[in-house]
Amino acid sequence: MVCLSPLHALAAETAPSAPSASCPRVLQHTVLRLQDEKPQALCQYAGQVVVVVNTASYCGFTSQYKGLEALYAKYKDRGLVLLGFPSNDFSQEPDSNAKIADFCENTFGVKFPMFAKSTVRGTDALPLFKQLSDQTGTAPRWNFYKYVISRDGQHIKSFSSMTGPQDKSFVAEVEKQLAAKVNGS
């Protein structure tokens, strides 16, 4: 496996493509998968409730992986997907993509989709995170910052790192979005 630098990972993400009726603008990005660094179109998650979270292996909140995996396991059959983006923006994810993938799988049994180490704030942030920050008015302030995106991509709510995956307000938002219908269906 060839590990790419964060700058190469950024170059692999495309700018949002032409608007698509079936894929919300917020998901119109391609990012590298953590395990093999193969490009993945986020449009594959269109129609699902999406939780985007920036992660780190050496953070006081790293144990949230366990709760995130439990949330994913509980709701994935109802249309929830979690997307994890390791980041060293807060100096707590120095490892390579291969080591991060190994850590997530072997330490926390993470099964939800994880992507290559990325920048999640500032001018070098992935376009996805720039878009999430613009739409919510909030960039990640620390690791394990969460965004809940509705099935149609029109409603995005952010949650701080202090809000754990089992927090009542977070779970209520996930359940609210899972219960919502898209286009009256």
Task: Give the biggest beta sheet.
Answer: 4 strands, mixed
Q: Quick one: CATH superfamily?
A: Glutaredoxin
What count of helical segments does DSSP give?
5
Count of individual domains: 1
Main sheet: which strands, in order across? 4-3-5-6
Which features would summarize this protein structure in a list?
single chain; two-stranded antiparallel sheet; Glutaredoxin; globular; about 180 residues; alpha+beta; 4-stranded mixed β-sheet; disordered N terminus
Summarize the structure.
By secondary structure, this protein is α+β, with helices and mostly antiparallel strands. The chain is 29% helix and 15% strand.
Topology:
Elements: H1 6-12, E1 30-32, E2 39-41, E3 49-55, H2 64-75, E4 80-86, H3 97-108, H4 127-136, E5 146-149, E6 156-159, H5 168-179
Parallel strand pairs: 3-4
Antiparallel strand pairs: 1-2, 3-5, 5-6
Write up what this structure looks like.
- A four-stranded mixed sheet has the order 4-3-5-6, sandwiched between helices. It has a two-stranded antiparallel ribbon with strand order 1-2.
- Strand 5 (146-149) and strand 6 (156-159) form a beta hairpin.
- It has one domain (6-178): Glutaredoxin (3-Layer(aba) Sandwich).
- The protein has helices at residues 6-12, 64-75, 97-108, 127-136, 168-179, and strands spanning 30-32, 39-41, 49-55, 80-86, 146-149, 156-159.
- The chain is α+β, with helices and mostly antiparallel strands.
- Helices cover 29% and strands 15% of the residues.
- The protein is built from five helices and six strands; from the N terminus they run αβββαβααββα.
- 39% of the residues are buried.
